[in-house]
Amino acid sequence: MLLLAAASLVAFVLLLYMVSPLISPKPLALPGAHVVVTGGSSGIGKCIAIECYKQGAFITLVARNEDKLLQAKKEIEKHSINDKQVVLCISVDVSQDYSQVENVIKQAQEKLGPVDMLVNCAGMSLSGKFEDLEVSTFERLMSINYLGSVYPSRAVIATMKERRMGRVVFVSSQAGQLGLFGYTAYSSSKFALRGLAEALQMEVKPYNVYVTVAYPPDTDTPGFAKENQTKPLETRLISETTSVCKPEQVAKQIVKDAVQGNFNSSIGSDGYMLSSLTCGMAPVTSIMEGLQQSPENCCSRGPRRDDSGKPNPRQDAEQPV
């Protein structure tokens, strides 16, 4: 009986594997595609640009520091696969002025064509206990991590819908799946990206545009090194329970998931388990993503009950939504 159940499970998984390509989005062809990467002068963003360039894409790098942009451009150009590829650099703060962001995206499209994939990787992390953080820190992180993704996405989405193709990637964090000690400002700004992505995916899916949210773990980047200098002890101890990933590994997985049109992008077995436990009712673009959504995550809770086991409408009314 046990062998029969195991054989049935294997057959079911194989069937899903065979059927999945029939309902999944058509993969985005990167050769010749125009990929815009914000925060592309270092860290995960630069590695994503390199990964796309290796596959034949044309790259627009967007960041604030011109010197770092030019340095990243030289590094990326070493990985060209043909002499037609171009790396365009644009220096702008994507979190400050939408009209400025819109203008530079237009300039990039005039030079390299419509944007096929936008990777929102601009961001930063500041940690500290809630009462120790300045209010300005919350405002700053929400501006950079959230609005810094809203503005570029807003600038490209209309053209993607008109062309009925495109990918928009939001690089969140595992701290955007699970609130952690010391990350009251950072986690909330990264959680906001998920809400944006879920709502946006519902709007653009009919136009064959797909959204991906990436949840990288601690990654060996200049930003991570700087963040470690001010981490509270408790936050550091939590961080040390897992290994630090290489940015190249993270970038490769994000590009793979974005090209396939997957909504969730997680790194490693720990990341997959965390995504399975926190997926809730996230958009589904494949059978495998659908299987991640367990009934416990997707079903809403029933009415709260008092000590006698009877429903307590008052407690329900007081429960925050």
From TrEMBL:
Q: What pathway does the annotation place this protein in?
A: Sphingolipid metabolism; Lipid metabolism; sphingolipid metabolism
- The positions making up the signal sequence are 1-25
Q: Which reaction equations make up its catalytic activity?
A: sphinganine + NADP(+) = 3-oxosphinganine + NADPH + H(+)
Q: Where are the transmembrane segments?
A: none
- Region spans: Disordered: 293-321
Q: Which GO terms describe its cellular component?
A: endoplasmic reticulum; membrane
Q: Which PROSITE patterns match?
A: ADH_SHORT (PS00061)
* Compartments in which it is found: Endoplasmic reticulum
Q: Which UniProt keywords apply?
A: Endoplasmic reticulum, Lipid metabolism, NADP, Nucleotide-binding, Oxidoreductase, Signal, Sphingolipid metabolism
Biased composition regions of type Basic and acidic residues, renumbered to the chain: 303-321
Q: Which domain of life is it from?
A: Eukaryota
- Family indicated by similarity: Belongs to the short-chain dehydrogenases/reductases (SDR) family.
Query: What role does this protein play?
Result: Catalyzes the reduction of 3'-oxosphinganine (3-ketodihydrosphingosine/KDS) to sphinganine (dihydrosphingosine/DHS), the second step of de novo sphingolipid biosynthesis.
**A GO term (biological process) for this protein?**
sphingolipid biosynthetic process
Q: Which GO terms describe its molecular function?
A: 3-dehydrosphinganine reductase activity; nucleotide binding
Originating species: Bos taurus
Mind telling me which InterPro entries this protein's record contains?
KDSR-like, NAD(P)-bd_dom_sf, Sc_DH/Rdtase_CS, SDR_fam
Q: What is this protein called?
A: 3-ketodihydrosphingosine reductase
**Entry's EC annotation:** 1.1.1.102
